[in-house]
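Narrative progress, year one. The postdoctoral researcher (J.K.) led the effort to move from monomer predictions toward full complexes, under supervision of the PI. The following entry was the first complex the group processed end to end, covering 458 residues in total.
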Amino acid sequence: MSLVKLDQVHKYYGDFHVLKGIDLDIKAGEVVSIIGKSGSGKSTLLRCINGLEEYQQGGISVDDKEVTSEDIQVRRLALSVGMIFQNFNLFPHLTVGENIMLAPTIVLKKSKAEAQTIAKAMLEKVGLGDKFGSYPEKLSGGQQQRVAIARALAMNPKVLLCDEITSALDPELVGDVLKVLEQLAKEGMTLVLVTHEMNFARDVGDRVVFMHQGKVWEEGNSKKLLSDPETEELKQFIGAVL
Amino acid sequence: MIEFSNWDILRNLLFAMQWTILLSLIAFISGTSVALGLTAVRLTRNPVMTRFVKVYVELFQGTPLLMQMFLCFFGLSMIGYEISAWGAAILSLTLFTSAFLVEIWRGCIDTLPKGQWEASRVLGLSFLQTLRHVILPQATRVAFAPTVGFSVQVVKGTALASVIGFVELTKAGTMLNNATFEPFKVFAFVALLYFALCYPLSLCSKYLEKKYHVAR
């Protein structure tokens, strides 16, 4: 059963046609990597899925609910779609614990004690159980990103969108973050990642979607697609990144 | 003719300075309140309301405070609304202060990364919840120093109220000068007293800037 469904989605920035009729069907538990050159529309696509960007034609639904960028709709959507950003976007004035507890307390109306239990559990999960009281600025980039993951998980999302979440990290910190994602994938979390980590896409991902010039140029089983690309564009892209 | 000793001059100036302080305080407090309201209006992102705030800011930033005071004092009485020099001074200083503070605070809110809004949004926070829990706590920290810094402009701005006949520090200086014919001495005292008011404020502003800016 499909969890995220895109049907002929078109998006324009003014005259610029960013997404040119995207069809995509993501099943629950699937790990989908979206790859492609910068400017191919992959981040925009991700941001359309949770309503951060408007689209002009077509339809997107998550868990059988239609996605529009209207505020109230986005908020309802936030309950099923989590998102992690390239720049972490932690709240710098709050401690790690408070960062995670904020949305569960004020959006889900959980009690403080309950939110705290969840926050601690999520921090344990990402391997940062001892950082509950620290401020984000005291953490490394990799740790901050793992806190961001914990913050998203605390809302118990059905699908997690990851927008180049390792691109701003020092190379030696990338592994820790990917390990967390791998663990989540094993637990059955649905992941949609815009990523440049081809090894991760191949080894952990189920499916790869290659975007080119605003279209889904090629997609399929990740191992097969990355080792045996059909189109010239994907061959070139793989040659350039590997 | 009465002889004025240095102490007499200073004593009279100090007495008048109370009014400068009071006028500054009231103007600053009411200016801050109006600015808070206007900032809230601006944050609603309603195009009409935003436009209104923009015009308001341009209007009161783009005209001399003295003209605003003249308009409040003489203009309002021309259209049949009697206003005291005191009232006109407070009104014009409030308009002036709020126009600048709205703009200063806009800068403070806009310097926060867009990602803060987006992260809040994808976590399901409403606009008001985002403001209250994410944006304002950060923006106020940034805003402290420039706001206190701007209060120096308010204190100095009160000097203009002397022109519409309100007896504060500058007006008292002019009067004492007329009585003593010692402009250098009298106005040096006046200047020193303004400095004594403003310098601690700018020190405070610098301190706040260090405290809140370097940490981030």
